[in-house]
Specification:
alpha+beta, 2 domains, four-stranded antiparallel β-sheet, three-stranded antiparallel β-sheet, 4 helices, 31% strand
Length: 135
């Protein structure tokens, strides 16, 4: 069974203020959430409304989010620019086992989410080979 995603409105037990959150719960009832608006939750209170999201909801929300926050994609040239390296070196980085998987492959080559590439580039990796000394 896939995780259940809900949007919930809670009334905080301490302040009485409302809080809007989105929550993901697995088949065992374990999960986590994100507060979208309202005060930090004091740990007590009551749930005023719960709406379980379905596929249609997900498509509509995704459409709004994609319009407001378009995802930045990066091809090999962009990866090279982000890393400050040549396209050849960017291709070598893309072959690294920890490099993110491309989100798609186009005629021009693979494309990645820019955020995933940036996150990879921020991780510490073993240094490459030393440059050859001039003789």
């Amino acid at each position: 069974m896939p995780d259940r995603l809900t949007i919930e409105i809670h009334r905080d037990g301490l302040s009485g203020k409302l809080q809007l959150g989105i929550h993901q719960t697995d088949e065992n009832g374990a999960g986590h959430g994100y507060r979208l608006a309202g005060p930090e939750f004091s740990g007590s209170g009551e749930t005023m409304l719960t709406r379980t999201l379905d596929e249609r909801d997900a498509e509509e929300i995704r459409r709004y989010l994609d319009t407001a926050f378009p995802e930045k994609l990066a091809g090999l040239a962009e990866v090279a620019g982000l890393a400050g390296v040549s396209r050849t070196r960017a291709s070598q980085l893309a072959a690294h086992p920890d490099f993110p998987a491309p989100v798609d492959r186009l005629a021009m080559g693979p494309v990645w989410r820019e955020a995933d590439v940036t996150k990879f580039l921020a991780t510490e990796r073993k240094p490459g080979r030393r440059a050859k000394e001039a003789t």
